[in-house]
Amino acid sequence: MGIFGSTERPPPSSPPDPSKLALRPEENKSLTLPDGRSLGFATYGSTSPSDPAIFLFHGMPGCRLVGRSWNKLCKDIGARLITIDRPGNGLSTLANRSLQEWPEDVLSVADHLNISRFSIVGGSAGGPFALACARFIPKERLRGTTVVCGIAPIEAFLDTTPYLSWRLGGFTPWAVKLAARYMILPSLLSPYRDLDPSRLKRTLEDQCQTPEEKEFLKPDPSRETDLDDAVAGLLETFKQGKGGFIQDGSITCRDWGFDLKDIDSEKVWLWHGDKDPVAPVATARWIDERLGGGRLKVLEGGTHSTIWKHHEKDIFQQSAEA
Question: What rounded mean pLDDT belongs to the chain?
Answer without folding.
Answer: 88
